[in-house]
Amino acid sequence: MNTRVESAATAAWPAAAQNQAAPAANAGARELRLWQIAGLALPLVVFAVLEVVVRADLVPRNLLPAPSEVFQSLWDLADGDLWRHIGASGARVLAGFGIGAALAIVVGAAVGLSRRLEALLEPSFQALRAIPSLAWVPLLLLWLGIDEAPKITLIAIGAFFPVYLNLVSGIHNVDRKLIELSEVYRLGRVEQVRRILLPAALPQLFTGLRSGLSLAWMFMVAAELIAASKGLGYLLTDGRETSRPDLVLVAILVLAILGKFSDALLKRLEDRWLAWRDTLATRA
After folding, report:
1. Domain 67-282 in CATH: superfamily?
2. Which pTM does this prediction carry?
């Protein structure tokens, strides 16, 4: 009889623990949702404060226009050339990031799997990574002219190094026990790479991809200083040359929105591909 009672109590304990944990989890989710709403409202609060400050003439309008004026300029441009500028910049970022990231994955995988290649290429890559983006501009102009090729090449250079470094680091940090397990099961080198190394390095690869995409947008602005007649970088230059800070802020605002949107797409892809992880970030 006592054994039955103890067994029933033992079986009921996990259910009771889950019932107690559920309200706490729901409360945590509600609190997190409130913080997310606050995060979305924060820019609106900043815009409202700036509107008051500028309207009160505490800041010269030729240096910082009111947010309402910036949004009016954004609205006016939306009926005109804004979409042409967004399309040109987006196409350049897409092409440059695609080329740079693909090349980084191939080279990074090779370097991560070969100590000899790492010893051969790593010193040169570290030196090239330290070169500022604008330092490439004169050389690319000499080599590739003033068409689209130098712009896309510069963006690809910006996207390459974060993806390369994170992938190499991810491969080097794979748990040695997984490699030993694959050797026990006599997996070939290709199967070892496909089933062990690359899946284990995926979290850091996605970190590199998101960093590379962010740098691609930054390098795009530098790229569009190369004799561009359209694009958000050109809009920044045009606003500076015509002394229109509202145009400069419109370009900055659009860049921020596009950068956030593209990063969110990569983040969603990361969450889908890495749904198998059991980490602090994936905790409910």
Report:
1. MetI-like (1.10.3720.10)
2. 0.81
